[in-house]
Amino acid sequence: MSNGVPTNGDSAETHTASQRYLSTRGEDTGFSFEEVVLKGLANDGGLYIPEQVPTAEGWETWKDLSFVDLAFNILSLYISPAEIPADDLKDIIRRSYATFRADDVTPLVHLQDNIHLLELFHGPTFAFKDVALQFLGNLFEYFLVRRNEGKTGRDRYHLTVVGATSGDTGSAAIYGLRGKKDVSVFMLHPKGRVSPIQELQMTTVLDPNVHNLAVEGNFDNCQDIVKALFADPEINKTHKLGAVNSINWARILAQTVYYFYSYFTLARQQGDSFTVGDKVRFAVPSGNFGDILAGYFAFRMGLPVDKLVIATNENDILDRFWKTGRYEKKPTYGQAAQGGLPADGVKAHEDGVKETLSPAMDILVSSNFERLLWFLAYEFASDAGMDDEWNKRQAGQEVAAWLGDLKTKGGFGPVYRGVLDAARRTFESERVSDPQTIDTIRSVYQAVGYVLDPHTAVGVEAARHQEQQNKPQSTLPIISLSTAHPAKFAGAVTLALQDEPGFEFDAKVLPAEFVGLEQREKRVRDVENAWTAVREVVRKEVEVELASKEY
Ligand SMILES: *Cc1c(COP(=O)(O)O)cnc(C)c1O
């Protein structure tokens, strides 16, 4: 690979990568990028990862590239030109980020002290998931249209994406897929239980291939329906079901770009006080571990990362892992007695997920954590001095065993010391409560006049705590990821700022795009909480769509 990496968009012919993918649970190997993207989940239940994490040779010379050119260089390391010719890949990337309102796609702004905010919310739905889903939607369309070349009508491969959402993912997926050829999207949300803005963002999309289904039930019911559909042999015989959840590898891949891009932006902004090659920290508000995992890949590719700081809310399974080496849905009694359990009276669902002010991070387990576990197990196995194939096999077996215990016993661990040490070398973790989240929104507003959304506030509080700990590395710049626009979470922002003199939500926070949303035409269909009823709706609506197609 030494001189094979293109430094600009025109020299891609010299690029020789032929990246294949394997499953974290060891059974599936040798997959192409296209297979991985369209399949989502491996046959053995694992997640796909690249067989080799490529080194970004010559990355230092990418400092002044535009977001799109940088994205092209990075993505080319994972997608061979035999799969997507360079010009096509470039075009997909260009179209994916043309929908962003900021010229530089993901701007970096100085917040206070050493903390810089990476604004990831300038896409169509005002949240960071757009960065990945705009790209994923275009990729789906590209692969489908290519498979359908020369085919017409019913012979065309038609993808039916089905998903459940409690808010953020749904609107970003809908905006990623709206109007795309050969794909329908059905998004289930719990009727009346999604924030008003998020519901409107979904239901005001009128493209014929977008189907909003309001389920009489809660989010768990929606998820159960989706799971039942994926497991149903009948619908799988007649429809090709697809998923866009955060385990899709293309989403992780797209997100690695802004780690590099923000690093270079910082270097440009700081001038002489920061040179390319210096280290930074990243603080990342985390739920399913997809966002921060992209930072881990950037690090493994060669970006000088001092630490990745995981910021969780009160759903803190990740924070507990880093503190104890145990990954458990519920903290054990012993740990709770040592102060591991919050006493702040938040609502808890039956299954243990707490409703917090940062709902997009309300998870019980972090699905993408499995990918990191594989790399930790792989590094650990590598110490035994056997060959690479053996190391990979060991890693797959270890991950399969851990995830088996998670499923049957509700947790696993403590993991080997060496595994935990490896995790702590690259990551630190912080847990932020709801009261701390509110305090952070308020104090940042008072200090610099910037309005944080509650998820971003969790990250900023983690970053500030790191600074206060006054370690030698606390002088390093810290890039804190801003994952949503504050207008999406009006409740928390208002709670924090309503008593601030001169603060007015509509004037200070609300973007023009959200004004008048409730007057717009909506398309949403109520459905019963029964998966067979949803199956009927899916069949009928896909039929209507296909009947009206001219290609
Ligand atoms: C999804 C989401 C997160 C969490 O990201 P993960 O990849 O699940 O860790 C944080 N903030 C917002 C606003 C989100 O939508």
TrEMBL record:
This is Threonine synthase. Residues 20-97 form the Threonine synthase N-terminal domain. NCBIfam families: thrC (TIGR00260). Pathway: Amino-acid biosynthesis; L-threonine biosynthesis; L-threonine from L-aspartate: step 5/5. SUPFAM superfamilies: Tryptophan synthase beta subunit-like PLP-dependent enzymes. Its EC number is 4.2.3.1. One of its GO terms (molecular function) is threonine synthase activity. It comes from Dichotomopilus funicola. Residues 106-339 form the Tryptophan synthase beta chain-like PALP domain. Belongs to the threonine synthase family.
